[in-house]
Amino acid sequence: MTDICVIGGGPAGVFACFFAAKDNKKVTLIERNDDVLKKLLLTGNGKCNYSNSDLKSEYYNFGKDHPYSKIIEEFDSEKLEEFFMDRGMPTYGKNNCKYPRSERAETVKNVLSEMLSEKKVEVLTGKKVTSAEYRPGKKIDENATNKPINEKDLPHFILKFEDGGKIECKKLIIATGGKAYPSTGSDGGGYRLARALGHNVTFTYPVLTRLFTEDKAVKEMAGVRFKAKVTAVVEGEIISSEEGELQFTENGLSGICIYNLSRYLSKPLEDGLNCNVVVDFMPEMAKESMDYYIEKQIQKNNDWRNLLVNIFGEKTASLIYKKIVSEANGAAGKDLISHFTNSIKNYKIKISGHDSFSNAQVTKGGVSIDEVDENMASKICPGLFFAGEVLDVDGKCGGYNLHFAFASGRRAGLSAGE
Known about the structure:
Layout: E1 2-7, H1 11-20, E2 27-31, E3 51-52, H2 69-74, H3 77-86, E4 91-94, E5 97-100, H4 105-118, E6 122-125, E7 129-135, E8 156-161, E9 166-174, H5 189-196, E10 205-207, E11 211-212, H6 216-219, E12 225-234, E13 237-248, E14 252-254, H7 256-270, E15 275-280, H8 287-300, H9 304-312, H10 314-327, H11 333-345, E16 347-350, E17 353-354, E18 362-364, E19 384-386, H12 400-416
Parallel strand pairs: 1-2, 1-9, 2-6, 9-19
Antiparallel strand pairs: 3-5, 4-5, 7-8, 8-9, 10-18, 11-14, 11-17, 12-13, 12-15, 13-14, 15-16
Helix pairs in contact: 1-4, 1-12, 8-11, 9-10, 10-11
């Protein structure tokens, strides 16, 4: 019987193994793919944006007052950077995002693989766990003396594999990830194991992904990129705003700012609520200032469309101009100017849906964090721990989710290894 089994050979699972393997404990890592860290190679477009220097717990769905904020505080971005530097992996930052100096996710994979070898972790690949059972053990007579204790009489877990094999362990860490990028093996299997061990799993949605629209005018903008402020509005209520490069696609909207808004729109879209993205094409200028600027320019040359082309370029100008014409309703003078600037700063796009798990970076939902304490230990099943995306934890785009995988894996490993 092994001391600790970790299911899932991603960043959270590898860190859990590394920090659990102390005091001569036997640790076994179980991975369904033929190699570990398959999904890691896709992160940051292959460059592996592993963390963010602007690391705050409020950028996660659990918020700054949740006990999980301690996990981030005790192993923050600087500590993770020092950890990698000590292991021979120089890093660098760009717009707060942190990467390996090599700009290759393969470098991070190599470092993590070396960590497993250093701790002599047994790695079982090509092993899909189909069931997990907790055996509470036999009641031990405290008054009995000089009686050998069989390990199987103590609390332990029995894991069964798809190929018919099994393994037993004293403690178990589930770090299987969520459902994003199922081609890498993330099919939600960890949720089934968690439920079998008594845990609740919240409904899951794909996030950090593209948003779709049926707006034909917007679709005509496919290929255009523009720096803007975007705001998620659900049933008329402002939910969240982001600034960044907005990308128009043949199906709708993309870009990091849109990915971040998808965290707030995926569930409402699934629930059939009215969802919109409102675009401010000139966030650097207040509406009053823009009114004044437009008025002065029109006084010089009464060519509304040409003014838009000079500001935004042909395609974006065409999009906004069509909206102005269709909604002007006979406005003139200052009313027309106000309508003109409102079209620039409050361009509403109705959202019809979101992309699938196959094209989403992260899963929203998962094992309820109300049932897992700040040490990543189950409040329901003794000896059970969780780490990473299998939990109902999601963060902004920019290294936040990968950092949580490392930090929560570390905490789960330390806790299980005690």
